[in-house]
Specification:
alpha/beta, Aldehyde Dehydrogenase, Chain A, domain 2, seven-stranded mixed β-sheet, 13 helices, 18 strands, 38% helix, globular
Amino acid sequence: MPALERQKLILRLADAIDAEADFLAHLETIDVGKAISDARSIDVFGSIANFEYFAGWTSKLDGRTATAVSLPGETLTYTVKEPVGVVAAIIPWNFPLQILSWKLAAALACGCTVVCKPSELTPLSAMRVAQLATKVGFPDGVINVVNGFGHIIGQALATHPGIDKLSFTGSTAVGTAVGKTALDTMKRLTLELGGKSPVIVTSKANLDNAANAILSGIFMNSGQVCDAGSRVYAHACVHDELVEKLKAGAESLTIGPGLDPNSKITPLVSAAHRGRVLEHIESAHSEGASLVTGEGPGGTSREDGILRPTIFDECSDGMQIFREEIFGAVLGVARFRSLDEAVERANASIYGLAAAVYSDNVDETVQLSRRLKAGNIYINAHGLLDPTMPFGGVGASGFGKDMGPEQLDGFLTTKSIYLQLGK
């Protein structure tokens, strides 16, 4: 298909999603449990932005010409970019529509066809997007949705010889297993995996701004966010004041059902997941962390699936809540006395998806951003995303990028062509 025709199709899909923004936000809320205000402003409109941004790339995926520097005679050398082929996109349950758009928009821009596997917990928005794609004129077979359990469908996609590229977002354990299987058939891989993102609050931070951003970074989507800033290192001279602000902010968050537009803390995706988060909270109590606010020992039993936002202080790096991804509304806080100490402790994790720095000193923020080992660094904010910027991590957080021009190479192959001219 000519590039500009492909561009028009992608833009028509973006318009169709925009026309159903309220309906899709409703689907995300009843599927995931998230606040409908976030589903509309983050999930739906973020997805539209991704499709609109990558639609513009369809006509700009050019190769290059080169001048040979070591060959005798005259040689014309150039490269061409071609679609990698069939892409398997495995989508997690926490942001099913938005992360679907991350993978789908770039793959379509490059001319690939896609087999999408949404989570069995949250399949509704992917199916609706596939219906909309048919409605706006995508040819049959370009966008495909296969539902089912991850250990069956995901495994089948990873082993299928007809899949050329696998793009996976999910836990480190599952992603590692899927990635190993995919390598048996030499598939190209993008793995966006777990995180345990550190947050450094220096002595030069604006504490009101820092507290608000930290709370947003850990409690958005009830903590079910891969780059959530879940372990805070606060300078000793601001630690106590910051903890008080975090406590007050957490206790002011409105708890309720996702469809209530005023709710900020909403049900977790399932009762089973809520139980796993409570196990992490129980470990924090047993290991000696100091509860600031939230769930006490034993947790609370609720039929609505909600877990109160929970903050622990006096955490040590060896505690489970500072080492393992919780994927829930649980924040741990520790204090530090020097920036060298803060960087060393922040980088001690096996993960490297994101990190955040809070300081009003520009030199301090730039120096810390260079020293922290993470794919995404947020300064005086958390969780900022834009289609122009690549998203992905290092270490146990995986490799490869979603979004940004950097993502395109994952869906393209580069062919080098040599043409000998004359004798």
